[in-house]
Amino acid sequence: MRIRLRYVASGVFILTGIAAAVALAHMDNLPAFIMIAPGYLVQAWLFETHRALGGFGYQVTMVGVSALVWSLLILSLSVAVRLLRRLVRRPHRPGDLGAPAPGPQLERRGTHPR
Questions:
Q1: Cα–Cα distance for residue pair 18/64, rounded to 1 Å
Q2: Residue 12: CB partners within 8 Å, gap ≥ 6?
Q3: Could you tell me how many helices (H) and strands (E) the chain has, helices first?
Q4: Do 51 and 23 form a contact (C-beta atoms < 8 A)?
């Protein structure tokens, strides 16, 4: 079964967006603060550069940036695991490192050794 990465990415972004929105309302505990931290850093930078958003813009910035950062982190880890699994499952070719030593040479027309 193959699932396209774009569907997984949109699902992960929606889930992390929901988690960040819930975390914004519960910033009195550590897991919620860790979840919302990327958005908090961006909002602090906007405040320092005198471009801070207030009200609804503040909430959108906090939730959107946090969802984007956590989605990219989760997706990059899943793509790395997928590539590692593909490399581990790949059959060895004679020129690869760690491949078994080649056996006797076979003729082109038959399967008997020379």
A1: 10
A2: 71, 74, 75
A3: 3, 0
A4: no
Q: For the whole prediction, is pTM greater than 0.90?
A: no
Copy the structure tokens of residue 85.
Answer: 């699994």
CA atoms within 13 A on the CB side of 88: 6
The domain segmentation of the chain, as residue ranges, is 5-89
Instruction: Work out the number of other CB atoms within 10 angstroms of the CB of residue 39.
Output: 25
SS3 state at 73: helix
For 74-99, the pLDDT digits (tens) are: 999 999 998 999 888 877 666 656 55
Q: How far is C-alpha 110 from the chain's CA centre?
A: 49
